[in-house]
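User: For a reading group we're discussing how well predicted structures match intuition. Take Protein FYV10. Before you show the prediction, I'll give you the sequence so everyone sees exactly what went in.
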Amino acid sequence: MSSANLMSRTPSTATPTWHQFERKVDEVKPSKTDLNHLVMDYLITNGYPAAAQKFAVEANISLQTDIDSIQERVEIRTAIHAGNIQAAIERINELNPQILDENPSLHFSLLRLQLVELIRTCTSTPDGDISPALEFATSQLAPRAPTNPQFLEDLERTLALLIFPSDNLSPALASLLDPSLRKDIAMRVNEAILQNQGACQEARLRNLVKLRAFAEKKARSAKKDIPDKLELCLTNDTHDNSSSNNGSTRNGNSDSVLANNGDIDPMIS
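Assistant: Thanks. Here is the predicted 3D structure of Protein FYV10, as structure tokens, for the group to look at:
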């Protein structure tokens, strides 16, 4: 019997052919301990104290950080997400005034966001009083603007929100009122606090994802033999997330606050 006939009778349950690259990847076996520590680092760095506590028990690893310090970052970030910028600034200064004193760019960004929130409030109703926004811009932002050309440009662009109707803004102005601005600045604040505390500003897992994307880009530009599509296996399952968030809310843990404020990690969204 020919070899071709033998091959045609091979059971359909045979292992599918893998690309050589995929076989090499499959040969790499990271330890469960290393993976657990990566997950724990991610939960701590990105501010999920309840999840970190639960995972520490389930993975039988020590939680080598103060839960209160994570919760402080959570509350600051939640205040920013809610548009309560003054409260966030006060909490940051209570934590350590040097965080903003040593980062004038971040401080200005927070104050500008506070101005955006004031403008949002005063323009939400017809004939709204814009004097609180103007007074804040004059007292808090105007003295800082001349120290940096970017500060001055940002202030001028923000004040333009008082001139044009909110329903007919250019994309550049509309982006100031988009909730994503709160999220971006909240992320910067989180990183600044971590840096001030001597911790890594970014989770190691996120760095690995970035490194993996960079390596793939370099490999493709060099015409290396890799599969046409490399799955990252970090897809966002809506059903699972919904179940998880509902469970968080029922348990009353603080992690649900972040989820309910749209804090979906861009790494997995």
